[in-house]
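## retry 2 of 3
previous attempt timed out at serialization; input unchanged, resubmitting
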Amino acid sequence: MLAEILDPGFLDVLHSAAERIRDHDEFRIIAHYDGDGTSAGIILARALLRLSKRFHLGYIKDLGPEAFKDRIEEERDLPTIVVDAGSDQLRFVPDIENIIVLDHHFYQKSSAKGLNINARDFKVDGTREACGSTMAYLMALVLDEKNSDLFPFFLSGVIADKQDIGGLRGLNNLLQEEYGSRYRKVHALNLEGENLIDALSYSTDPFFNNISGNSENTKKLLKEAGLDVTKPPLDLTEDEKRVLAGKLSYIMVKQGVGSEALKYLESDVYRFPDYGFSSKEISSIIDGNSKIGKNSVAVQYFLGDRRIKKECMDNWKIFKSKLIDYSYRSFKETFQDTNLRYFYAPESEMAGAISGLLMLYLLPQDKPVIGISVSDGIAKVSGRGTRKQVEKGLNLSVVLKNAAQSVGGNGGGHDIAAGGSIPSEKVKQFLEVANSIIREQFPSSGLNPP
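## retry succeeded, writing output
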């Protein structure tokens, strides 16, 4: 089946990786720490378990030269699979051969000896058409087509990486069409939670100003809509969905969101009764646990330990509460520059999530936003834009990479979302360079004239 989906060269290199995996009994999996990376980690863990392979699954946040090199050299003789990161970092460990990288980010070509499998090398858009879980799912399918039942976690990563906005595209969509047909799909409001109170008061994507984080306003809204506050969002009738969608879209328009965010109010949602959650909920639970450093809790649950469901959900609520609170605070304390906005985030792991929420739902859509978190002499930076900005020339991967390197740091990622780290005393200089690069990327767009 994959032969009908993938470029022959893409399939060949995946088969080369599969042979390496079959030839060894023990592995280390290193996944990027976020929702996409952790979803990818779950896929690879399940695939290796089915092959009776031993493995250790760990996570990585700092993708800088020294941090990545140190992490790999901790067990340099152990075969390692790096997922949702690694293509750009292989140049930091050029002589180590027993590494398989499954990635989708922009990267700098190198002569590293590791096996680098990146979707972009096969004309697949790694920003919209393939993410870390896509690459892990492909690897699992090549190992054994029976791993197609790991589809929920492929979809989880796609949603976490925001590649579902406006519907799946390209390779993601081809995989959905091929392997998603066995599951029930419904068109629903893009909400998650056991009841409407939780679904709205903890909602961050979409985000509803003065409703998200406010249970009293949520109850008032639901009362006005004539809805039972205890009803699960997926159980709403068509009439109830229409009424609630009307009220929520009015709130979003009033808060000034663009068309990209409005599209996220409704989506196609898969129901996965074996796990007790919808596709959106699985993604949100994995992402929420990951963002507060509890990746292993979500992994343990979705590998079969149902005893820890409450812990999973409690962690989800902790993350959502933090993100909502931090976003309201950051919105009030956002600074303006000519071609960008920026704010200081209280936690480095939250900077990207806050940036994304502010960009889509609270800030004007005329310029990208960069979140900054300072700790121990290092400033972590995370930038977010919109698809319309990217269409007009924005490439945050270039912006953050070049601006960070100009002050002795490192960065990269996607055109629409990227991150990096810099010396904390260089933040002002970094912002000046980033501002200049963004201006050059919009020479005649009219989006943000110099």
